[in-house]
Structures are given as structure tokens and as C-alpha cells.
Amino acid sequence: MAEGLKSGGEHERRLSSGDPALWQQVVEQLGTALAVIDPAGRIVAVNPAAERLLQRAAGSVYGRDLHDLCHRDPGGALVPRERCPLLRALAERRAARGDDDRCLRGDGRLVPISWSATPLADDVSGVCLGMVVLIVESASDRSAGRERAERAEQSERVEQAGRAARTSALESLAERLTLVAEITDVLGQTLEVDEALARLSRVLVPRLADWAAVDLRVGSRQVHRVAVTGPEGRAAGQEDWRGHLPPVGEATHSPLVQVLNEGAPVLQERVDLDTPPDSPLAAVHDAFLGATGAASAITVPLGSGRQVTGALTLVRTDPARLFDTGDLDAAGDIGRRVGLVIDNARRFGRQRAVAEAMQRNLLPPLPAHGRFQLAARYQPAPPGSQVGGDWYDAFALRDGTLALVIGDVVGHDLTAAAGMAQLHGILRSLAWDHAEPTGAVVDRLDDALHAITIVRMATLVLARVEGPDTGPWTLHWTSAGHPPPLLLTPDGNAQYLEAGQGLILGTDPCAGKPRPSAAHALPPRSTLLLYTDGLIEVPGSDLTRGLSRLRRHALALAHEPLDILCDQLAARTPPGSTDDVALLALRLPVP
To answer: Which terminal residue of the chain, N or C, has fewer Cβ atoms less than 10 Å from its own Cβ?
Structure first.
């Protein structure tokens, strides 16, 4: 489809600043002898040209002092260390050059040399790491300085070119690694696929590409384009390319089809739109590239191996800024990470749906109890959050008294839902035929918690509404670390019932000490609200503000029918809440 395009990630071999072997390749093939010494003057590296000049194998010189090994005066005597300009430059961390020195080779010969040295420093700390020394053999009868100057200048140019190539490669690599790290962090902030892809696109454009498109598999062959992002100021309507695409066919020359079928990244270095597409999906992809004005494009799989969940296409429109193999590697790494996030999100969504269905099915229907009105709501956590163990219950005891329960099992998903079901059944059994205080019933539940349930900890309120059908009525209750009940009275008051507070179930630091029970009169036509903390609490916020918000909303709805009151309160969860909500409401009749 395009000149320079190779399937399966194969391409024409071209030099690239992003190739990690580029610097090594330059040094190995350099015709000038090069040695690297550490801050003590010991040899840590030489290239093949240096081995030939010194007539010494690399392995025999590593760790040896370059000055003591090779530096001699014209008569062959060892130059005193204090007179060596190379050692002085090393000590002072500056560049230096020498034109009329002798080098003692491994075969015993003295050869005239000129040399130049440049210090190496750590880019971050600035600490001197040593020096790079270029050594050039001079003609024995050379007396004029012009040739020496020319050779030194040539060496300097080679050295500068090498430094520039190394710097460019390192900067490009660092930029790509930073981008990959940033994308990893962004993707880890949500379990919602749409939100994750939107955040991904905002990072990729314009940092790595001018346009980005994400296609996801839906079933075995169907493809859905879920995200298209372009530069600021793009023409209106260009993002309407999202939607269902033609099905994936057999292997074709289309990069998108190859990636979806084979899972191998594809680089189009020069996009050629003159080649007719060979499948409906290829035609759609070609139209996208043409509409964006693509000069080069990258298409990589989302996921890896057999777990290809889709494809990421990146487009650059500037012919002077074409993608290279380094960009392909970075995009491939990003695609693998995005694929993992999508797989995790889909798996999480399936588990969340099962947990939510299980939790809803386990919540009991409300009984009809005399003239009392009862209403309840369960609202799962927002998408992207885990379903918790919030629950409610209302049932008649053996003596006809109405019992009310609201609770929250610590944990999430299926484990919390299963634990909630266990607590629900055990608490009903313990409370049904015992006329003892509510605190005693909760104590016995706490004693049984770890022995016969999987629940580690939980909060709850157990309450009984006592009194004849015509009133008066009294609420008896115990709270195990749960938010207090809210009582709304016909005179427009709202009161949190904060008595009867005990420790959370499962902590048991005061075994043997009875839990407190509390009692409070319930006026006719009053409304009692039992709720879980998802209705009042947002992580990092002030709980007092959440309680005040609930009181204000409940008072405004106090005269509404009970179902409307519950619907409105459940819909007014605090902004930013990530928890599910259970709500149980009781309205007292007129005597």
C-alpha cells in the first residue's frame, strides 16, 4: 500500500536517532583510535582503531593506566606524571590537545602521535566520569603544524558528530520513555474504557502524533472505531468517523487488517493513497488517512499475542517529521499497555455486573406491616467503581414487632455480596424470637461473625419499632459503627439519633462488655431514614458536610410520598462518590 511498508514489523534498514546501537556503531566503525579513561586515568574502553594503533588487544589494556602504558618522550623515556598534559586536563576536568608526543606500542615501537581529549560528565549530577581520548598517528618527519592542525580539526569534527548523535539518541529515548510512563499513569487512573481512551488521546495528540484513532474488536470480526482525536482547530465534523466499521476479512495489504489479524505493528513511512484498497475495511482506513493528510502512519495492536483487542493508529502530517522505528517501538509499548487496561476493564465490568445482580437478588422484599409505610432503594456505585456490600432489611419478629436493618460489609464485589447474604440470614435468625435489647442481639452476631461467615468487618444499625397499631411508638436501636438514623418530624425538624453507638463488627477489642442500646419516641407522621455512607461520604471530604447535605435534602422532601423521597435522595449522592448506596425509609401513620 505504501512505499517503504513492510508487514510484520519489517522495514528498510535506516539509521535512526532512536536506535540504541547507533552510538556503539559509530564508535566501532570510526577510523580514528579512541580510548575512554576513568577519573584515575585507567582505560575502560578502546575501539578497534585504537587496538591497531597501540598494537594491543582490548582485553590486555582494560584497567591499565594509559599514561604509564603508552606515554613516552621523543627519546622513549616515560614522561613524568606531573608534566603530562593529559593527566593535568583530567584533574582539571577540561579539554586538552597534544601534537608532539610518542606512543609506546605493544610491539616495542615508538610512534609519533597527536591526541585530543574531552571530559565526560554525568548529565544529571555533573560528576566527571572520565575522558574520551582520540589518538592519531603522525608521520615521523612531520615538522609543519598545518597537517597536525588539519588532523586535529578532523578528529574534533568526528568527535562532535558522535556527541551530537549520542545526545540526540538519548534525548529521543528519554522523551519516549517519559511519554510511555505518563500514559501508564493516566491509564491507571480509571477502569472505564471510554474514559481511559479519551485520556490516552489527549496525551498522544500532539505529543507523539497529529491524529490518533482507536478501533476495538466487538466479537470475532466486527470492529468499532471508538475514538478519533485530532489537532486543535480541526474542521468541524471530522470526529464523526467513530462508529461501526466493516468486518475484518482475510489477510490483506491494509495495515489495519494486518494488525487486527496478525498482531504485528506496521509503519507506513510514506503513505501512498493511490493504491486501491483491497477490502471494505481497508477502504475506510485509507479514507481516514487521506482525510487527515497523513504523511506517515503507525498502526499497532492493543494487547499482545493472541489477546489483540483492537488497534491504535497514529498519524503525522508533516513530511519533515516522519515516524521512525523508535516511534514504532514506543507506540507498540503503548498499545500493549492499553490492551491490558481494556482487558482488565472488561473483566472488571463482567465481575461488577455479576456482583450487582447477585446483590440485588439477595435484597429482600419489604413486608406489609400494619399501617406503617416502608420504602427502600439500592443504588450501585458509579461505573468504574466496585459494587460494595451495602444492604437493608425489614421483617416482623415473632411478637409482631417490626425490625429494621441497614448495613455495610467491608469489601467489594462478590465477596462483599456473599458476606452480606450471610449476615442477613444470621441476623434474622438471632433477632426473630428474642425479646432482648438490640445491643445483645448485635453482640451475639459479632461473636458468630468470624466463626460462621466470611465477613471480616461490617457496620450496621438494628432497630425495632415498638408500640400498638394506634401508637405511641418507640424506636429501640443499636449502631455498630454505622452512620446515625435521621428522624424527620412533621413540625419541620430533622434530628440525627446519635445514641446507641458501639464498635464496628469484627473488631472485638472489648469482648464481654455489652453493646449500648438506645430508645427514642417516634411522633405520628414522622419519617425515619436508615442509610449507608455512600449517601453522605466522598473520599477526602468532610463527613459533617455530607450529613448536613443529607439533612437539608431530606427536610425539603419530608412531605413527599415515601417512594419519591427515596428516589430523590438516592439520586442526590454527593458529587465524586464512588460507593454504592442502600436506603431504608419508614413513615409512621396518623393515630
So the answer is: C
